[in-house]
Write a structure and sequence with these properties.
This protein has about 625 residues and is mainly beta. It folds into 3 domains: about 170 residues, Immunoglobulin-like, CATH 2.60.40; about 80 residues, Sandwich (Immunoglobulin-like); about 325 residues, no CATH class. About 10% of the residues lie in helices and about 35% in strands. The protein has 9 helices and 34 strands. It has an 8-stranded mixed barrel with strand order 1-2-9-7-6-3-4-5. The protein has a 4-stranded mixed beta sheet with strand order 12-10-15-34, with no helix packed on it. A 4-stranded antiparallel beta sheet has the order 16-17-33-20. A hairpin with a 5-residue loop joins strand 28 and strand 29. It is elongated, with a radius of gyration of 29 Å. About 45% of the residues are buried. About 10% of the residues have low confidence.
Length: about 625
């Protein structure tokens, strides 16, 4: 919000003082619709975001009751203080020439442009913009050109003495195009070529401000790669038609062929949605991969579970990688950094020791780590409450890894899986976390373990027993519809950083837990859904299940049967919706496992038609 200094001239609204200065506040609404926009403290003139900042300019008009211009496109500029002041052609602050009168009409627009001088209404401004669009705004390939094209308007400011509030909206429409292949393999022929659209730095979605219109034709060509590598790729035509409304956004998602075929990596459980579940997690290891790195799975007594490790279903039993909601890197691939509310890095690496709560966030010498502040959706704008990132550029499955129509499942698909499956505990094993952080087991020259994290024995173990091992329960899902089988391993979650990988069902050689040790989260299974929470903007929904347990003859815990979680929420009509296997309070920065899904009724088709490109409109 920016305060703009005006003066007032109507004695009946001056709080008893004639010509008392008053403030006008200014804010901007985002484009309506699923914009999937990353919001940060950025200038309106400097990009794509809806916040005024120093240097932004706007034009203000006042028309009297007879239709005469009292103030004709007066230029205001936002100062460092957050206030905005009238300026002359040289940018120097001048005395305000505007006074408040209840019988006058006030309106404004941004960014400032002298071409609007003489306009007597917001409609006049929009007509002028439309008349010059092809000449002035067709090319939006740079940030400055894109921002100049994003016309903001306010026609009905709110007056509450001594303040007038201008709430701006977008006069045009926002077209967004996301392609999960290489953009070199994509062309757009209409309504604008790709090289005339704006791609923000570090982002994957092109943006273009366009005139509102119905039945806008959008089409082009894209390279279609086949899942059968013996066949050469070919170019395919794609086309769609959309209605572009004022102050609204449309996202066109174009899918290249998947890197994993659902025919070999998927299990069709016959569910009504048509959704096909992947047979294994993102990052799951094969038996050969595990053997190569020297990984092991153990029972509670420290004995290797060789039959399980050598199983042809090894990838289905393996935990895979941990991701935060909306991030495209695992919880241990990136260096530890702190990012403030403005999106700026304030600390890196060994400079990090604790967060504000005193919880250690980075291990000196570990080189890798994660801190909640690194969670890149700092303003929770990837998707608001009740939103969804499935298939967007923030869906790591669709964007970066398996591509095609593979994506993160939404909460309704998880509910469908739970409701239409007979679920049991198939097997279980313990695995240490050297796999995720090799520095856990580093030793000094004298053979003793390095004391890298004295206050987190939950992850490291003890000085003599290191590292701790974590229980992984393998849950078996048998479709009630067609009898197909899906295996999903439990695991744990990474709440602060990979060194905070936590689960109440951990053990270590020589330190086995009994049923009295931990009462919650035993055998926990935690998988992010693509759905944002229905009540907490900082959270997302996730698949959760735990295991009941009993003790063996030595008093050690053994998982027996699944314990399925559920949650409820109120929909927009006030109805209570119950979701099986879902919890809705998973912090978005938490690291969880991901099990991809393919297709479904809302995702075009489950058929991998050779030489085809899929498009989705949101």
């Amino acid at each position: 919000m920016v305060a703009i200094a005006f003066a007032a001239c109507s004695t009946d609204t001056l709080l008893e003082t004639e010509k008392m200065p008053m403030e006008i506040s200014v804010d901007v609404a985002s484009f309506a619709g699923k914009t999937q926009e990353v919001s940060t403290r950025a200038s309106v003139n400097n990009g794509i975001y809806t916040t005024f900042a120093e240097g932004d300019d706007l034009g203000v008009f006042v028309v009297d009751k007879d239709g005469n211009l009292v103030a004709n496109n007066l230029k205001f500029k936002v100062a460092k203080t957050g206030n905005a002041y009238p300026v002359d052609v040289s940018g120097n602050v001048v005395a305000s020439k505007i006074y408040y009168d209840a019988e006058c009409k006030y309106f404004a627009y941004a960014p400032y442009d002298a071409q609007y001088t003489g306009c007597k209404s917001v409609d006049d401004i929009k007509k002028k913009y439309t008349s010059v669009f092809n000449d002035k705004y067709a090319d939006q390939s740079t940030a400055s050109k894109y921002c100049a094209a994003d016309l903001l308007i306010c026609d009905n400011p709110e007056w509450t003495a001594p303040r007038m509030r201008f709430s701006f909206t977008h006069a045009m429409s926002l077209l967004q195009v996301f392609y999960n292949g290489d953009y070199k393999d994509l062309t757009i022929e209409a309504p604008v070529a790709l090289d005339k659209m704006f791609l923000p730095e570090g982002k994957s979605t092109y943006r273009y401000v366009t005139l509102p219109r119905n039945e806008l034709q959008i089409y082009g060509m894209a390279l279609s790669r086949h899942t059968d590598e013996s066949e050469a790729p070919s170019y395919s035509f794609w086309q769609t038609k959309v209605d572009m409304k004022e102050n609204s956004a449309i996202l066109i998602s174009i899918s290249s062929q998947p890197t994993e075929s659902y025919k070999t990596a998927g299990v069709d459980m016959g569910f009504p949605s048509g959704c096909i579940w992947a047979a294994y997690n993102l990052g799951s290891e094969s038996a050969a991969d595990q053997t190569k790195r020297g990984g092991k799975w153990y029972d509670a007594y420290g004995k290797e579970k060789t039959n399980l490790m050598s199983s042809e279903l090894h990838k289905s039993f393996d935990r895979g990688d941990y991701y935060s909601w909306g991030e495209l890197e695992t919880k241990y691939e990136q260096p530890a950094v702190i990012i403030n509310d403005e999106g700026k890095v304030t600390a890196v690496g060994d400079a990090l020791t604790t967060n504000a709560s005193g919880v250690t966030s980075f291990i000196a010498g570990s080189e890798k780590g994660y801190y909640p502040g690194t969670y890149i959706d700092r303003t929770y704008s990837y998707s608001p409450i009740d939103g969804n990132i499935a298939g967007s550029e923030y869906d790591v499955v669709r964007n970066k890894l398996w591509k095609g129509e593979w994506r993160i499942p939404n909460e309704n698909e998880i509910d469908e899986l739970m409701s239409n499956s007979d679920i049991s505990v198939y097997d279980w094993y313990y695995e240490d976390n050297v796999r995720y952080a090799s520095w856990i087991a580093e030793k000094n020259d004298d053979g003793t373990y390095k004391n890298l994290h004295v206050d987190n024995s939950e992850f490291y173990g003890t000085d003599s027993i290191r590292p701790f091992r974590y229980l992984v329960v393998i849950y078996k899902f048998v479709s009630k519809i067609n009898g197909e089988v899906l295996y999903i391993p439990g695991g744990t979650w990474s709440d602060w950083s990979i060194d905070e990988l936590s689960c109440r069902s951990r053990n270590a050689i020589g330190n086995y837990h009994t049923t009295t040790s931990w009462s919650e989260d035993y055998g926990g299974m935690y998988y992010f859904a693509s759905s944002a929470s229905h009540s907490d903007i900082s959270c997302a929904s996730y698949m959760e299940m735990e295991a009941n347990r009993e003790t063996d003859k030595n008093g050690y815990m053994v998982p027996t049967t699944p314990r399925i979680k559920s949650s409820t929420y109120k929909d927009k009509n006030g109805n209570t919706v119950t979701l099986m296997g879902l919890t809705q309070n998973g912090h978005r920065y938490t690291g969880m496992l991901i099990r991809p899904v393919y297709g479904g009724k809302n995702w075009n088709t489950n058929t991998e038609t050779r030489g085809s490109i899929r498009i989705t409109v949101e």
